[in-house]
Automatic annotation (TrEMBL):
Belongs to the BPI/LBP/Plunc superfamily. BPI/LBP family. GO terms for molecular function: lipid binding. SMART domains: BPI2. Keywords: Signal. Residues 1-20 form the signal peptide. The gene is BPIFB2. This is BPI fold containing family B member 2. The keyword Signal applies. It holds the Pfam family LBP_BPI_CETP. Residues 249-452 form the Lipid-binding serum glycoprotein C-terminal domain. CDD domains: BPI2.
Amino acid sequence: MTRENGLGLLLVLLLPVVGASRPGTVVRLNKEVLSYAAEAGKAPLQRALQVTVPNFLDRSGEALQPTRIQILNVHLPHLHLKLIAGFGIRLSAAANFTLKIFHVPEPLHLMLPMELLVDAPVDQCSIGTPVVSISDCFSFFDEAIVLDDRNRAAPALLVPLQKHIQAVLQSKLCLRVSNVVQSLNVHLGTLIGLSRVGPESQVRYSMINAPTITRDYISLDVNAILFLLGRPIMLPEVNTSFVLPHHVGTRGAMVTVGLSQDLFDSALLLLQKAGVLNMDITGQLKSDDNILNTSVLGQLIPEVARQFPEPMALVLKVRLGAMPTVTLHTNNATLQLQPFVEVLAPASNSAFQSLFSLNVVVNLSLQLFVSGVRLRGTTSVLGNVQITMASSNVGFIDMEKVQILMDTVFERPLLDHLNALLGLGIALPHVVNLHYISPEIFVYEGYVVVSSALLYQR
Ligand SMILES: *[C@@H]1O[C@H](CO)[C@@H](O)[C@H](O)[C@H]1NC(C)=O
Ligand SMILES: *[C@@H]1O[C@H](CO)[C@@H](O)[C@H](O)[C@H]1NC(C)=O
Ligand SMILES: *[C@@H]1O[C@H](CO)[C@@H](O)[C@H](O)[C@H]1NC(C)=O
Ligand SMILES: *[C@@H]1O[C@H](CO)[C@@H](O)[C@H](O)[C@H]1NC(C)=O
Ligand SMILES: *[C@@H]1O[C@H](CO)[C@@H](O)[C@H](O)[C@H]1NC(C)=O
């Protein structure tokens, strides 16, 4: 990337999201993701609860005796997350703290059962990422259990000791939980990171309004902005917002991602503007499987045979002036390309001369798949390639004959080129270290759905 492009990109990133009003994409985190998150969150939360407890000052004797206290273990078997409609997430956990009291003459082991209740609203941050905060955090303690039964501690010690421990834990635990939530937010912040689309192009997703939260899901309206050389690519007249219907995709999937027609149109516009859909198909002489030469063409067009008595290799210049269109019907995605093809032959002065040019229409069936975090595609030709003459410098051309020739020389290179491009794909909305697992794709009228499980893995 040149310095100028880099600067342009930086400016774009610093600017508020340009004309951001259309979602284009919906990421719906279903309640199923919560049991996974709870399972994955147990270990970090358990570690976070391992706080230090200051010495206990025993005021029962005549001298003030400091007693050291250590948390030996935190056992957190139950962690439960639940969605609260219009609000966010409620966390409830039950844990047992095993504590060692360095009491003279003999140490004492206590088990302190605790319940933790945290209410965490989920909102939208000003930079367009989801953000979790804590509105309420409570810890409830049960009676401590003395583990060494031969060591019968005096209640005169136990009662103030337990009060001390509870007071410490109460003040520290919620702070620790808040730290865990903060690191989660840092993670969620990576949603707005730029992902590469092609050599000079990127996509960036960001939330455009507060999440919709029901008992069953948290739904994020996400805007996808595509950049070419650091500049946003905008579709001309789009003003409808995309609403993802309720029961789409796989039932019980952790995440349902809805991708609107707009996203596909924008991605194609990007490819077209970047010029990467254009290609040259070149002929080779003395090749049995490459028929792009003037002697083959001369058999169909007399003027070509007359102008090129010596065989010459031909070049097909394929240019996409019009934007390709994608059509999404139930279980059926198609792509239409309308390339302009110029047939060129070498002229005397090492330049090329145009023999004739064609308007081509080709319908392709588009198969979509997800690998990594990218939505990718592969195409095959549907029906016939439709060819009409645009101009000729070699007189009359019998289109029926040229059609067969074009089908042969045009189809395979076009498909190879297109499939290589679509195979690179476009990143779906994602955050660092969170992977789409066993994704399934569904094509509906006007949009595509990806249903997937998620896996957190560093
Ligand atoms: C805590 O320990 C007690 C006694 O062993 C046990 O009955 C209880 O189920 C434990 N609670 C948790 C949350 O592990
Ligand atoms: C926006 O959509 C409405 C309703 O579909 C339409 O009447 C209006 O012309 C559109 N505006 C633009 C700028 O496309
Ligand atoms: C032109 O193409 C045909 C078909 O591939 C091939 O048989 C022939 O040898 C080629 N002519 C030259 C001069 O390369
Ligand atoms: C998909 O649509 C194309 C074009 O409309 C059609 O030719 C094709 O038969 C359809 N395929 C299926 C599986 O419906
Ligand atoms: C391409 O598909 C469109 C819409 O289904 C159809 O009208 C058109 O005839 C097709 N063209 C070719 C060349 O197959």
